[in-house]
Every structure is written in C-alpha cells, then in structure tokens.
Design goal:
- By secondary structure, the chain is of the alpha/beta class.
- The strands form two sheets. The chain has a four-stranded mixed β-sheet. Strands 5-6-7 form a three-stranded mixed β-sheet, with helices on one face.
- Strand 5 and strand 6 form a beta hairpin.
- Helix 2 crosses helix 3.
C-alpha cells in the first residue's frame, strides 16, 4: 500500500528578504523550522535550515535503511551505520540546482569484509528510493568505510 507523507511551509515576503518555516505534518516531529534564501544560497545561518539540508537528511536516512537491509540479506547484519549526506546547491547557468549528493558511511559489521561492504553501499546508493528520485538529475556518490571492530574488554 502506498504511503503518503506531508510537510507544509509558510513563506512571508519576497525571495531575497523573506522568510519561512517548514513543518512535518504527518509525524509532527518538527514544527516551524526556519528557512531563508540567505541560509540556502549564501551562508549557513544559525537556526535556519534549507530544502537542501532537509534533502540531505532524507537521503542519508533512506540510504542507511537500504544499506542495513542489503547487509542483512547478505548475512552481514550491521551493528551500527553512521551516514552523512552532503548535498550541493549551486548556480548552473542562470538557474540554481541541486547538483550533487555525496553519501559517506562508516559501518560496524562484525561479519563483513571491506569489499562486500563497499559493494553493498554502492548498490544501496543506486537503489534507495531517494537516490531513485534524484537519479538522472543529481550526481550521486558514496564513500564506504568498514570500521575495525571495537576492542573487547575482558
């Protein structure tokens, strides 16, 4: 069954001097996260987010779930995955575009080996639903590191 999620934004003013706030309507987990053009295109602005930061959060989350699933199916269930996504928003010609999303993952996978881990990460990057939505429009990349097991204490 299809799942539908909702978010809403209230924007006041023009693009350059205006401001807005985005809220998660489905879960209610965030409300009135502040937005501005300055925080989006010019400089990080404390206390304000951007569509690209939210996209990075969505991509990192989606990828982490896809990778956890792939590793489990390959009989290498992860203990922990730490994922970050870096989304680039840049001027291309006369327009602004999301040009790139780079994923970085460090995994603690007791039954894993580095080659199989990187292969699983590449497949997750290609096939997670957010990657599928971006594919063809945004350059996608992944850097996967298999962490050494944590030392055991007696």
């Amino acid at each position: 069954m299809a799942q539908v999620r909702q978010a809403s934004v209230v924007w006041q003013g023009d693009l350059m001097s205006g401001k807005g706030a985005v809220s998660a309507r489905t879960s209610g987990l965030f409300r009135d996260l502040l937005l501005s053009w300055h925080a989006r295109a010019e400089a990080t602005e404390a206390g304000r987010t951007s569509p690209e930061e939210l996209l990075a959060a969505a991509h990192a989350s989606c990828f982490a779930m896809a990778l956890a699933s792939r590793l489990a199916r390959a009989e290498m269930p992860p203990e922990r995955l730490e994922v970050s996504a870096t989304v680039t928003f840049d001027r291309v010609g006369e327009a602004w575009r999301v040009t790139r999303s780079h994923l970085a993952v460090t995994g603690w996978v007791p039954k894993g080996d580095a080659t199989r881990f990187r292969e699983a990460a590449e497949a997750a990057k290609e096939n997670c639903p957010i990657s599928q939505a971006l594919k063809g429009n945004v350059e996608l990349s992944v850097e996967a590191t298999l962490a050494a097991p944590a030392p055991r204490t007696p």
